Input
Amino acid sequence: MSSMFSAEEILETIKMVSAENLDIRTVTLGINIRSCADSRPDKTLNNIEERIMEEGKNLHDKVDEVENRYGIPIVNRRISVSPVSDVIAPAVREGYKDVAVEAAKTLDNVAEEIGIDFVGGFSTRVEKGITESDGALLKNIPKSLSNTERVCSSINVATTNSGINMNAIKMAGEIIKETGEKTASEEGIGCAKLGIFSNAPPDNPFMPGATHGPGEASSSISVAISGPGVVKSVLEKEGGDLGELYELIKRTSFKIARSGELIGRKVANELDTDFNIVDLSLAPTPARGDSIAEIIEEMGIESCGAPGSTAALAILTDAVKKGGAMASSYVGGLSGSFIPVTEDSGMSNSIKKGSMSLEKLEAMSSVCSVGLDMVPIPGDTSAETISAIISDEISIGVINNKCTGVRLIPVEDKKAGDTVEFGGLLGSSPILDPSNFGSDKFVKRMGRIPSPINSLKN
Amino acid sequence: MNEERVIVITVEGSDHPGIVAAITKALANENVNILDITQTVVRETFTMLLFADIKNSESDFEGIKSKLKDVGKEQGVRVTVQYEEIFKEMHRV
Output
């Protein structure tokens, strides 16, 4: 039985962990909390607390146990809940317009109590229209994110099937602006906990977009794998043409995804809940070598953002998906490559060097997952310009039938080229330069942009 | 509840007499049965892979792992203990 594995195979796995930053980025427990809704705010909040405690109180310890048994580090333990706008609806209808702020505090407190760093689902879907309870949540996002540490928020403003809600995008620009101002003393960090999405998947385990969406089970475990460092070190060792690089990435992705599915199933088993999905996304960290930009450079691009970068990212993302899809039948969430700015030290270096720009990031986001992620912009950027940037990125998702997201951080008193330091896993970067030309009139037109035609594809 | 019983012990560090003896003695004390051992020394770096069955041990996985980690500290070598299943998942279709 034991001769099944060669020394090479065993040592490869151990090296992936010890030298190449292989880890499970997050184990996220999704919990349906829709049954917590009550017309009395206090009752709603108590229900939310009880429900999360019931499902999640052992999450932290059980994840620790599984981590210890298999020797794969699990960086974060997180919880996602049903979109809070649904849960507060009965109380909002009774006139409790600010119940959302209290709900955010409740989520923050429960998260702290059970020892998890982020809880996602302070969220709503408004791709067609904004209900009274959606409005009550949206209006209170800046206050809620500046009053809490662990709560993450997301707004789905468009889908391919429904089109784009420009009214919601206009509001999103204002919400980001206000959240940045309310957390200005911490460089606008509140905006790091807010994502604006098109085609948001219901089973995303990554923050800030994690929610336990419609159609999901009562509770379930999703796993997000990582490993840009592993892919990079494989490419460093081996040469070959682009087809051969593709093959190497595919094989590596297979191994990483298999470890993710094993961990997810074991945790689900320990918590007596369902295993949901593996999210295949390659998610970088500021750690040296754990970078998507450095993988692109390893493929032969002098500095990320230079011509060829979009092609290199397309190769990487597709190879990761093919390897991962062979490894696990239950692939979901975002499953692509992330190209965050501050969280990827290679990406932030490429901005310093001048090879990367906001426009190139937008172009690259058309071939990977998510989009303009952790992008610091000058604090005096207008709400309309923020909305216009969102509308560009969201259009890429809607037209191409994929999820895209926007996480912009207006940093007060900083202009393009200045550096912002968030510290820890959030990293640092020079501030990017949005256009000096305005888009106010376009954004203020508002309205619903119709869903795109799904044939005549060229 | 946990039906897995084969663990993989990996020991890496600078070579000196007594590493194998210390690890295997600890396993014997825990009534852990060794299924296979491979050991190499390349440029004075000692590497040992050891497959063992823990089904007859009175200790559980966590207990055995922590004993072996202690031995690793005494010997000045890095000891990794994992269930075999992780390797099965990653290296076999």
User: Anything to note?
Assistant: Chain B touches chain A at residues 6, 8, 10, 35-36, 38, 40, 47, 49, 51, 61-62, 65, 80-93 (CB under 8 Å). Residues 61-75 of chain B form the longest helix (15 residues).
